[in-house]
Amino acid sequence: MGGSTISGGTPGVLKHAAPGPPLAGLRARLGVPENVPLATLPVSAAGAALFVTAVYLFASTGPSSSAIVGSLALLGAALLAEAFPVPIEGVAAGRTSLANIFIVGTAVIYGWTEAAIIGALTMGLVELAHRRPVSRITFNTGLYTLAAGAAGAAAAAIEGTSLAALLLATAIASAAFYLVDITLLSGVIAETTRRPFFRVYARSTYSTAAPFAIMTSLAAILVVLWDRSPYIAVALAGPLVAIALYERRVFSILERLRELDRLKNEFIAIVSHELRTPVASVYGATMTLQQRELDEKRRDSLLSVIFTESARLARLVEQVVWASRFDSGHTRLHLEPCEPFGLAEEVIKAARLHLPPTLSIELSASAPPPPVLADPERVRQVLVNLLDNAVKFSPEGGRIQVAIERADGDVRFAVIDEGIGIPPREQARIFEKFHRLDPNLTRGVGGTGLGLYICQELVHQMNGRIWVDSRENEGSTFVFELPRA
Ligand code: ADP
Known about the structure:
By secondary structure, the chain is α+β, with helices and mostly antiparallel strands. The chain is 61% helix and 10% strand.
């Protein structure tokens, strides 16, 4: 039992449909839209017919009030479990719904009519709440109805209420649910992906076998407890909720680790790429200087290449060193009163020496800013980084401003450019480690994605805060505030 349906919620659930041409003639004759797999139609129709029959039989047999209350309780539990599926490591199709435990339990405790009704309502209501397309709702609901009906029919084959009979009934009910579910679903997946049915079937079975076994044993516990007293069965809620919460937590941690691993691999690729270019330039320039008689102009230009490229290398190495210092917690800043205007002036003076000729940098302060309590070297480092970025992303003729002003008890530094800007959804993420925008968006400008992360860490360690205001194609304002001395 893997809780398989068309959805993102359970293993083997159908998400997208792109049926192949061999059935195009039949599709046209039946007037079925392109995005609806033909194999879903009989499942939807048979499921609907079984649901109507089950409701009719349930109503006409006049169920006892205890059966109605019990079924409602199981429906409530199934709905909750379906609405909050659990991600299970190793199961390919998204998250696993534990609703099957209650549907199979219903099949054994009350019979196929109740199970089919609860199966249909569980899936139908949750899918409706998610506003899925109609064809997906009808297929998934049909699938659950048929699987639940099969579970009830299988359980009915076992007579008696001994412990062994209950366990056997649950095992075969659970197996029937699983078989119907996986078989019908594999048919639809085989059609949409145009892969052989048995290959799809084998893969679905393999990836959902473990959750099936776990849910079978949970269903058996539910049935046995229910047999003693439905009230005692409520005790199952505690461990189930705990399993669900624990699985969700473990899964999200694993996802985060995978993301970090991916970023690290990407980072290694970026750093090797970023190292290769300046090393090649420095090597080439030095070789030329050594081997040839050159006029002064050519010599100067090669020396300038060596200077810029080795500065780039030094910056890269420095960034990696800082990132690893933050990782190991080995950063020690020396906070002391320092003069913000003087610091900014020095940084701007140095930046102007290598500024592309069409760009300009200006420094302004509304009133003489008070001293800040900070590490002057680190304030310089942050300003250099923000100015470097402003230069990198400015258009020709762009104006860059550095403004310093008082802000409540703090002093605010702003680096303002007229560059390409940053889309709103990326504005918080660019401060994350290794995060860079799509290289095409940033005009293929290089970088490790560490600069702003380092700025943010340094500003935080100086008890300040940093953020960005930006409009795409208009420019960005990077702001950081530091406390007054
Ligand atoms: P790097 O060290 O690679 O420059 P940063 O952490 O400094 O990385 O910046 C991360 C990303 O933020 C950059 O790749 C760029 O896309 C974006 N970015 C930073 N500063 C600016 C800016 N002034 N204008 C536009 N985009 C920027």
